Amino acid sequence: MNDLSSGFLSIMIGPMWSGKTSKLVDKYKQCKLCGIPILPINYSLDTRYGDEVISTHDERKIPCIMAKYLSDISNICDGEITQAFKDAHVILINEAQFFEDIKVWVICAVEEHHKRVYICGLDGDHRRSKFGDVLDLIPFCDEVIKLHSICMACKKCPAIFTKRAVDNEKNMLLVGDISQEQIVIGTDIYKPLCRKCYTD
Question: Which CATH number fits the domain that encloses residue 79?
Fold first, then answer.
């Protein structure tokens, strides 16, 4: 941690199963060990591993505040500062692609309130189209980290894309479809793939 009087923004992006949430969990544990006040935030409909937790796929969990909009936690852009936001030196945001107000809120948190913000999310949907507004924050960030998984098809190359593995439009929300009323994630539905396996 450098100068806490200036804001900081770190963006971690990549396909599913690339370790994005694990990085947030590690950052949380570092901050707790050092006694740094921290505010972890997860998208309200991500209850795959329980309520009010951020969890990795292997169920390493940390407590968090759940919200559909970041302004529900603290409407900082309108000057409404909650105690939880005021106290936090570090803010962690999981599933960043789902927050519709992430760009305005994060810029305000970093540049006006000098928070250190770490966000993780998908950079693209299963069609390789931009997913949410995470990428719009790259010009404002201090660092951007592109993480990779292992290709679940060839099992050799780094996976950089997420591809839909089944064709069932009726029963699931597809990654990148704009209904945010549910989150459906599973290795039987989506696969992290390398470029060759994605395009074959």
Answer: 3.40.50.300
